[in-house]
Design goal:
The chain is α/β, with parallel strands linked by helices and 191 residues long. The chain has a single domain, classed as Rossmann fold (3-Layer(aba) Sandwich), CATH 3.40.50. Helices cover 33% and strands 18% of the residues. The chain has a 5-stranded parallel sheet with strand order 2-1-3-4-5, with helices on both faces. Strand 4, helix 5 and strand 5 form a beta-alpha-beta unit. The longest helix has 13 residues. The two termini are 19 Å apart. The N terminus is likely disordered. The structure holds flavin mononucleotide. The site of flavin mononucleotide (FMN) has 19 residues, from helix 1 and strand 4.
């Protein structure tokens, strides 16, 4: 997450973290529509499905004598991808008014990554932008807990809040019939 914050002209780099537990779901379809319509010119994009990069259960080792463990495997992949991005997009359906488990687990691992020697995690994240693209089956205000979580996490890390793009749907593809969501997607990442 460093290029944009250094004030250089480096292109923005969007990391789409897909936390849906099914392929081709509504959140992903809406996010791909928004990316196609509104990513800034020259922006790079990388898409990762969290289910294809399963993280171990989080262990709070902050105060353990042998506290530090070098991130490896999928954890390393996600840490490196996170640090390489200027913009972090949570493609996250609403599950029980909140984030899907995989997205919450990923966030829990930030607590370990803050302490990885040499990663400089907090400083490199600061100045980046967090976004949410979320499908849900009910009213938009039911996503407030999910949005609040991501906003507060961004704030804690000194990151900007880009905004939340919400779309309605139950079966995959439903969201592409949500005209207000598609209209918002047209300019979402340009905002
Ligand atoms: C475990 C689970 C919990 C859900 N909880 C909610 C919820 O709290 N509120 C809601 O409006 N929809 C809820 N839904 C519906 C999903 O948000 C909806 O089907 C959405 O399209 C799924 O996103 P996806 O297609 O990107 O996977 C839930 C679905 C699942 C599978």
């Amino acid at each position: 997450m460093s290029e944009q914050h250094a004030g250089t002209e480096a292109p923005r780099s969007f990391l789409f973290l897909n936390a849906s537990s099914r392929p081709g779901g509504n959140s992903e379809q809406l996010a791909r529509f928004a990316a196609g319509a509104s990513l800034p010119a020259g922006a790079e994009q990388r898409w990762l499905r969290l289910s294809e990069h399963p993280l171990p259960l989080f262990e709070d080792r902050r105060h353990a004598d042998d506290g530090f463990r070098e991130p490896a495997g999928h954890e390393r992949t996600l840490l490196d991808a996170t640090l390489a991005a200027t913009d972090l997009v949570f493609v996250a359906p609403l599950y029980w008014y909140s984030l899907p488990t995989s997205a919450k687990l990923y966030l829990d691992h930030w607590s370990a990554w803050l302490r990885v020697p040499g990663a400089d995690f907090r400083a490199r994240m600061a100045g980046g932008t967090v976004w949410a693209v979320t499908a849900l089956a009910t009213e938009p205000d039911k996503a407030d807990p999910l949005i609040g979580t991501l906003r507060l996490c961004a704030d804690y890390m000194g990151m900007r809040w880009g905004g939340a793009l919400l779309g309605n749907g139950t079966r995959p593809g439903d969201v592409l019939k949500d005209e207000p969501a598609l209209a918002a997607a047209e300019s979402f990442f340009a905002g």
